[in-house]
Amino acid sequence: MTLYDRIGTTYDSTRSTDPRIAARIWAALGQAQRIVNVGAGTGHYEPADRKVVAVEPSELMTARRPPGSAPVVRAHAEALPFADAEYDAAMAVLSDHHWRDRARGLRELRRIANRVVVFNFDVAAVGTFWLDDYLPRWVELAQSGMSMEEVSGHIGGARIEPVAIPRDCRDGFLGAYWARPESYLDPAVRANISVFARIDAAEGIARLAKDLRSGTWHARYGHLLTLGELDLGYRLLVAE
Predict the structure, then answer these.
(1) What is the mean pLDDT of residues 127-144?
(2) Cα 142 off chain centre by
(3) Is the pTM of this model over 0.85?
(4) In angstroms, rounded to a whole number, what is the distance separating the alpha carbons of residues 32 and 23?
(5) Which residues 6+ apart lie within 8 Å of 138 measured at CB?
């Protein structure tokens, strides 16, 4: 059973395409018309004006794709059932860190496509987000992850672009609520963020609730609320 077969039952309640992030991803795809989305989930960030094939191993996530979505191939990133250079572009959005053999999956993206676009988190930035102070176990996990330079190497060398996260981000991934700290207290929000399925965050969330009630959080981090967007370490990698 994949992670998202366990946590995906309410996924669409908090997760959706953020148009500002989507614009960056679609621009990175360039003129590509034949695109494969690997680890596609429910289809967020798939461009509607191009020919897209989705790759998704989770039966639950596949079933939750809306009508009219791109066709789905049930497969894993590490063994994509496509010919060399079959696609103009391959994309992976916040998914490659879940693959069983991440390096192999990334090399598969390079094999099947002329362009590779990956959107994910740079582990070098762990510890810079205020939420990290409440989730020490997440910090430990992240620090053992693959660097953006390693990801770049596996996809054949890439330019790495920072993607600032808007304060009202519509896609409820881990960093999306940086300006809405009370959102992390909502079990429905946490249920659709994979980090919270991998760690015991009860103590940290309780401490966050206490700090919000007492004003401690605002004293430490309230200055961030004046910002429209924030660089939390999310990066867009584009390889050609």
Answers:
(1) 95
(2) 14
(3) yes
(4) 14
(5) 126, 132, 195, 199, 201
